[in-house]
Specification:
CATH topology of the largest domain: D-Maltodextrin-Binding Protein, domain 2
Largest sheet: 5 strands, mixed
Strand content: 5-15%
Distance between the termini: 48 Å
Strand order of the largest sheet: 7-6-8-5-9
CATH superfamily of the largest domain: Periplasmic binding protein-like II
Helix content: 25-40%
Length: 387
């Protein structure tokens, strides 16, 4: 009689053997063949060795099965309320929505449009919004310092070299008049919200000529409206995210002065926030599954993936920017593993703190700002991405 019988793949996990890959199965079958061979030769020592090795492998596979186990029961919390801004920086959210990645995870998602991430913080902490995304701004740092129910859980969009998706534009008739930061004194510059990442980026650019944001006139406008403001002469310059900036250029009302990735090294323009309902331990499964769907979409957009006809059509649906303008534009970098540039986030917070915008007694540690446990659990289930 054989010591081991071959396992059926479909019954593997019920016996504690994980076949997320086939390595354990292959080893088990190899042991089975060895056992058969051993019995034929009646070599007791070899059979005992096989028993010891098998027990060890089954223990390893039990651990693997626990890690790769299907998600737990999904709490019934109704529709998941998710905030977004109609720019390319939220493309993974749009793609996950349209390709059914949220639905695959059992999530019913309803999207709500905002002018900035900072405006999402209050409804997140009140449980009126479940997921938000946007800048690491004053509202976020103040809320966290006040122990409100909001936390950063993953990265959204950043601008490493080649991904300058939030360029600094100047009005078309000012080309040759404004050539660099030294020409900005007294100029009207549009950003989507004060005391956030856009202001931080503008400040870093102006500092190259010894200027500050006090030397310009800040105009706050929703990103999609900046093109019209250029057209009617209401603004001289703007930090306008793609694909809206590409439309301003194609409409002939503005030109790019400097790409976003040339202003400061790899800024973390956007992060993902979870609010009150998802921070309830009873609803943790919802948060993990949300990030699993988000990461799947971010991986679809990796490299030139965002330029495919399907993905640009999805971006067009949510931004209302013509597809040719989207394809001619520049994308953000969506880290396929959801990682955050914490150095950039710290630098943004330091700027806001030094300007006196926050209510902090001292800057927060990144451990207070970011809870990476949701992301790590999502990555354990779907695996790390490598190009």
């Amino acid at each position: 009689m054989l010591l081991f019988q071959p396992l059926e793949k479909g019954k593997a996990c019920s016996l504690g053997v994980s076949y997320g890959g086939n390595w354990v199965l292959n080893i088990y079958y190899s042991i089975f063949r060895m056992a058969k061979h051993a019995e034929e030769k009646t070599m007791k020592i070899q059979k005992y060795l096989i028993i010891v090795i098998s027990i060890f492998l089954i223990e390893l596979s039990l651990q693997a099965c626990a890690r790769a186990a299907p998600a737990g029961k999904l709490p019934e919390i109704g529709k998941l309320q998710v905030g977004y801004i109609p720019i390319i920086g939220y493309a993974p959210v749009f793609v996950a929505m349209e390709k059914g990645y949220f639905a695959e995870q059992g999530l019913e998602v309803e999207l709500q449009s905002f002018n900035s991430g900072s405006l999402m913080i209050a409804p997140l902490s009140a449980g009126q919004l479940d997921v938000g995304a946007g800048e690491s701004g004053t509202a976020l740092f103040n809320a966290i310092s006040q122990k409100l129910d909001v936390i950063v859980v993953a990265g959204l969009a950043s601008q490493p070299p080649g991904y300058g998706a939030t360029p600094l534009l100047i009005r078309k008739d000012l080309v040759g008049v404004i050539d660099g930061p030294e020409d900005f004194r007294g100029r009207k510059v549009a950003i989507n919200i004060e005391h956030g990442v856009a202001e931080y980026l503008l400040a870093q650019y102006l500092a190259k000529a010894g200027l500050t944001v006090d030397d310009v006139e800040i105009i706050t406008l929703p990103i999609p409206e900046m093109g019209n403001a250029f057209a009617n002469g209401a603004i001289d310059a703007a930090l306008q995210a793609q694909p809206a900036s590409a439309k301003s250029v194609s409409d002939g009302v503005a030109e790019i002065l400097v790409d976003g990735d040339k202003i400061v090294d790899t800024p973390q323009n956007g992060v993902i926030y979870f609010g009150k309902r998802l921070l309830d331990p009873a609803n943790r499964e919802v948060g993990v599954r949300y990030l699993m769907a988000y990461l799947k979409a971010a991986r679809d957009l990796y490299g030139d993936g965002w330029r495919t006809d399907e993905n640009t059509a999805i971006i067009n649906k949510y931004t209302q920017v013509p597809i040719p303008s989207i394809k001619k534009g520049v994308a953000y970098f969506f880290d396929p593993n959801g990682r955050i540039n914490t150095e950039s986030t710290e630098s943004i917070q330091q700027y806001l703190f030094e300007r006196g915008y926050t209510e902090l007694e001292k800057p927060l540690s990144m451990e207070e700002v970011i809870d990476q446990s949701f992301l790590e659990e999502a990555l354990e289930r779907i695996g790390e991405f490598s190009p």
